[in-house]
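Researcher: I'd like a structural prediction for the single chain below. Treat it as a standalone chain; there are no partners to consider.
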Amino acid sequence: MRLYNIIDSKILKERLLNEDFTRKTVSFYRYFIINNPQHFRDLLYQDWSELNCFGRIYVAREGINAQMSVPEHNFNMFLETLRKYPIFDQIPIKFAIEDDGKSFYKLTIKVRPKLVADGLDDNAFDVTNVGNHLNAAEFHELVESGEHVVVDMRNHYESEIGHFKGAICPEADTFREEISMVTDMLAGQKDRKILLYCTGGIRCEKASAYLKHHGFSDVNQLHGGILEYARQIKQLNLESNFVGKNFVFDERLGESVNGEIIAHCHQCGKLCDTHVNCANDSCHILFIQCPECAKKYDGCCSDTCSTIKNAPEEEKVILKNSQNRKFGNSRLYCKSFLLAKKTNFATSENYSGENVTA
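Model: Treating it as a single chain, here is the predicted structure.
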């Protein structure tokens, strides 16, 4: 059995659209020592591909982090595969807030050095000494009081479209950048109650342990993250203290928590929280674009990218080289349109729309 996909993505996406059954989007993670990550990865690929599961799963020596799309008619069999391995014993499974069944179109399982690219030396501090886990009701009440320090441990492009009321939302493009930024920002508040949150909880595990190592005495984290908070708050019939949309790392790119739109189109400033990737394949930067600007710029982040996208192949290289932007240079690449602009990643006047909001 082949343990990887070789089918063109366009074909896979078409197959997904033509499916006549429903899927469930789920996520889960666990820190757990895996002696042979590659072997474990191959076993999971075999189990889950046979059930027509899709998703993006990272396996490392320290555990697993998974976001998956599972056919509803195979869901019980999927749970049976989890019972085969000790790492999944009583593992919490979180369900999507909004689910159209089109979150993933293929199964990807990768072995990584770490589950989260944090840039930290795990031998330098006790990664198991994590913060106090709070359920949704407890976290909700503490946020409601307005007396404590609430910190969003996600990237800027995530918090831009949705966050907890009163939260500190660092302007970071990666978790690696943010964890040191947060430590510095809170340096004078080590005795205050700190409330951390992220999408599903995994980033807060490392962040809380790191903050405790640096002398913060009262570190707390939202158990199950925004996903579990949204589910529990709905059951408790409470008004959400999370406003806007929860960014997700799949084809949906977001799911609304309370129905509010708090972000703006990066090109005209109109209320909008729809993330897209620039249609110029040599750019592909992530930004927020309203339908009108999508039409105006042909799905691109700028006139420059629109011109390059629609140019004949032989002209594209010439056009790219004529710009000051470093197309395709991963060392300079920024996911966030606004952060790219602020860090002078984009030095061409044509790169950003005339009315880009800062």
